[in-house]
Specification:
The chain is α/β, with parallel strands linked by helices. It is built from 23 helices and 28 strands. Helix content is 30%, strand content 19%.
Length: 771
């Protein structure tokens, strides 16, 4: 893992006027920062999966947002997440960086690493997963690829930006534990490990405080806890109070406001409303950011091979395709497999990316229908549109459906391309449902009625419900949005030159109503309550034993793999666990397996725990008959939960179970290891319960000794009675001390509390009353 260490920020003080410092903290235009003194301007570009390059740039840095010059369109994050391939994500990041440098772009606005809380989020195509580990590993690799190639990343959208409904105002109301364990975890991991040059603060508020003005998130957590030393910029148009934002730790307002808010900052400093040191800190950070970003200017960006980048886009797309179902081994099709009917306008007019600020003008585009005809060497490929785009949600023209029926009935196999039209999902609004357009489902029913050998190929940026129609088709391919090389990738998978190895990075439910967030999405009256807590995605489905269409981590192959000999051992330093498992390719084709490692905490936990949580993964490519040992390392710290009472991470002691799996519902092997608990950071008082006292590593023995000393026959009987002992377990110790028959007195409680305070069990002692 690469760690970048940056020098201290240079002073941006006496050499710049107050107005110049203020001007640094807002953009000069839409996608360029302000230059001042010796601080150069920095060019920014949208680009989570490829650059959105302006064709023309007018005075003041304004750009045409509706027209972009060609750049390579790589698979969006919804697809790249299904690759579970960090090396690939890093290569994509490096390629985007090469194109950025060639066009004079210093910072790419991405990747987006928000969690897929609900399948309805209109921007899910820009995000990797419902799981923070997959998100962190893929997003971190992309950051690393960008920055090692000399282009900065802007990690976004910090934080809890999980819906588009009322996105510029809504308050995401989240308890501290799910905030830390789910919604901040990927940000923390990437910030600590990859040191991104910048972080983008989100539009929304968190627990009532706008992110652009949230001192706790921007300063206390991001800078103080995680040691972030880069620039915090706003999302475009997110800042409502420029002075409050600077005070909270936001360095850069985007886009520029023509000097209006610069004047507000100057007036606030002059009046004493804003501490001059706050402005100086942001100006210094922005000066360092600008010098770092422009350091390679004039050194030559090197030649960019767009053909090579297209090849990478195609290879990436191949890794992203998920084979969901393949009954009777209908796939892959032989090149000379008779007559193949390709049905669905999306085969001829593909959707390959989402709409909104991430939209890229591709340098070229592989069209599935053309690529299928090239791949079907010897097969007769016919085509019928079946429906029209746009307006795929309207009743299809009967002549198109009848043509599709005729073509399907006269063919050996049908490749039916279905998916979401562009108007169904985009930045700026959420979906109302997760169904395919009804017209497409009716088309499917008519086609299946005349030819049961149907392969459905999906194109969608957000999860679509496949029930109940998936039971009627033998093969189902999740194609997501695959970028400009997606057509060739799909043809390779369908005709077998590519063995699919994608795995779902999000659960496909049977019904929208099964989603853990269903009853609290998208909120009301300016607030959305994250009522499902830590039970997001598969954590919720698995805990409730909810039947799903296809589980998290699922994906089939044209070969088979077996697992054996799972072992788990503590590392030499005690800070990690080393897991090893043997994986064998027992089929007839070379293939790639993604080995997933989940953990279950000890029984009897006092916090609500998921049934299992992903702790690591690794992929291995194996020839037929080949067997290798796969190693996955899990940090001990990653097994901890966030204790709201102690305001820190804490590992529970006991037997921890580890599972080697092919999905969250396909557990192959289990092993266990006993781990010691982290020391308690609780400073016990009489307000803590008997159970909490007895479980405490210091307070427990002290209390047991005091109980033995003061025990009467009556109190001994009470403690021996299992029902009474369970009754007493939940009662505060000072209440028990007030009972006439109690073994301890109120004075004992005071003495015991003082002894625990004199010998804390570790960490910073904290009482329930501490803020």
């Amino acid at each position: 893992m690469t760690h970048q260490h940056h020098p201290p920020a240079p002073a941006a003080g006496s050499e710049l006027t107050l107005l110049q410092k203020a001007s640094l903290t807002s953009g000069a235009g839409d996608f360029v920062t302000q230059a001042a003194g010796d601080v150069p301007a920095v060019s920014l570009s949208d680009g989570p999966h490829g650059l959105r390059l302006p064709r023309e740039q007018g005075d003041g840095g304004q750009v045409d947002l509706h027209s972009a010059a060609p750049a390579t369109c790589f698979p969006p994050a919804v697809a790249l997440g299904s690759s579970w391939d960090t090396q690939l994500a890093g290569m994509v990041g490096a390629a985007i960086a090469a194109e950025a440098r060639a066009h004079g772009v210093h910072v790419v606005l991405g990747p987006g690493i928000n969690i897929k809380r609900s399948p309805l989020c209109g921007r899910n195509f820009e995000y990797f997963s419902e799981d923070p580990l997959v998100t962190a590993e893929l997003g971190g690799a992309m950051v690393r690829g960008l920055q090692e190639a000399g282009v900065g990343a802007a990690l976004k959208h910090y934080a809890a930006n999980n819906q588009e409904t009322d996105r510029m105002r809504v308050s995401a109301d989240i308890d501290e534990r799910p905030l830390r364990e789910i919604y901040l975890r990927a940000f923390e991991r990437i910030v600590r490990r990859e040191r991104p040059w910048s972080v983008m603060a989100a539009y929304n508020a968190l627990n009532g405080v706008p992110l652009s003005e949230n001192h706790r998130l921007l300063t206390d957590i991001l800078r103080t806890e995680w040691s972030f030393d880069g620039v915090v910029m706003s999302d475009w148009g997110a800042v409502r109070d420029r002075v409050a934002a600077l005070r909270a730790g936001l360095d850069l307002q985007m886009p520029g406001t023509g000097g209006r808010t610069d004047a507000e900052v100057v007036a606030a400093v002059e009046s004493g409303e804003l501490d001059a040191e706050a402005l100086d800190r942001s100006a210094a950070r922005l000066a360092r950011f600008a010098h770092r970003a422009t350091a390679a200017d004039g050194t030559g960006a090197g030649e960019v091979s767009y053909e090579a980048h297209h090849d990478l886009a195609r290879t990436a797309a191949e890794r992203c395709v998920v084979l969901l179902k393949n009954d009777g081994e209908l796939l892959p099709l032989a090149p000379d497999s008779g007559t193949v009917a390709v049905i669905g306008e999306m085969a001829r007019t593909p959707r390959f990316q989402g709409a909104g600020s991430s939209q890229v003008t591709p340098t070229q585009l592989d069209v599935p229908l053309h690529c299928l005809r090239e791949a079907a060497d010897g097969a007769d490929v016919t085509f019928a549109a079946g429906y029209a785009l746009p307006g795929a949600d309207a009743e299809p023209a009967e002549d198109l459906v009848e043509e599709a029926e005729r073509v399907a009935a006269g063919s050996d196999t049908v490749l039916l391309f279905l998916g979401l039209p562009a108007q169904d999902e985009s930045e700026g609004f959420d979906r109302d449902h997760i169904d395919l357009p009804p017209a497409q489902v009716r088309l499917l029913e008519r086609v299946v009625a005349v030819n049961p050998r149907v392969v459905v190929v999906l194109s969608n940026g957000g999860v679509v419900r496949t029930a109940p129609w998936h039971d009627r088709v033998p093969a189902l391919v999740e194609g997501w949005l695959l970028g400009q090389g997606g057509g060739a990738a799909l043809a390779g998978v369908l005709f077998g030159s590519v063995n699919p190895s994608g795995r779902l990075a999000e659960t496909i439910p049977l019904r929208l109503e099964d989603s853990p967030s269903h009853l609290s999405f998208p909120g009301e009256e300016g607030h959305v309550r994250y009522g499902e807590g830590v039970f997001v995605g598969y954590r919720g489905y698995d805990k409730r034993r909810t039947e799903v269409a296809f589980p998290f981590g699922h994906g089939l192959s044209y070969t088979t793999f077996t697992y054996s000999d799972l072992t788990v051992r503590p590392g030499a330093d005690g800070a990690r666990l080393d897991l090893r498992v043997r994986v064998a390719n027992t089929g007839q084709r070379a293939g790639r397996e993604v080995v997933q490692i989940y953990s279950r905490g000890p029984a009897g936990s006092r916090v609500a725990c998921p049934e299992r949580e992903l702790r690591g993964f690794a992929s291995v490519e194996l020839a037929p008959g080949e067997e290798v040992e796969v190693e996955v390392r899990v940090d001990r710290a990653d097994l901890a939960h966030y204790s709201e009472r102690e305001a820190r991470w804490r590992l529970e002691g006991g037997v921890h179970h580890f599972e080697a799996a092919a999905s969250s519902r396909d557990i192959r092997l289990t092993a266990a290891v006993t781990l010691d608990a982290d020391p308690s950071g609780i400073l016990l008082t009489g307000r803590h319960t008997l159970a909490e006292w007895l479980e405490h590593p210091v307070g427990g023995p002290l209390l047991a000794e005091a109980l033995a000393r003061g025990r009467t026959d009556e109190s001994a009987g009470a403690m021996a009675d299992p029902v009474m002992r369970r009754f007493l377990a939940g009662i505060p110790l000072d209440v028990i001390a007030d009972f006439p028959q109690s073994s301890i007195t109120p004075e004992d409680v005071i003495t015991l509390s003082a002894k625990v305070a004199a010998e804390p069990a570790g960490g910073k002692p904290r009482t329930d009353d501490d803020e």
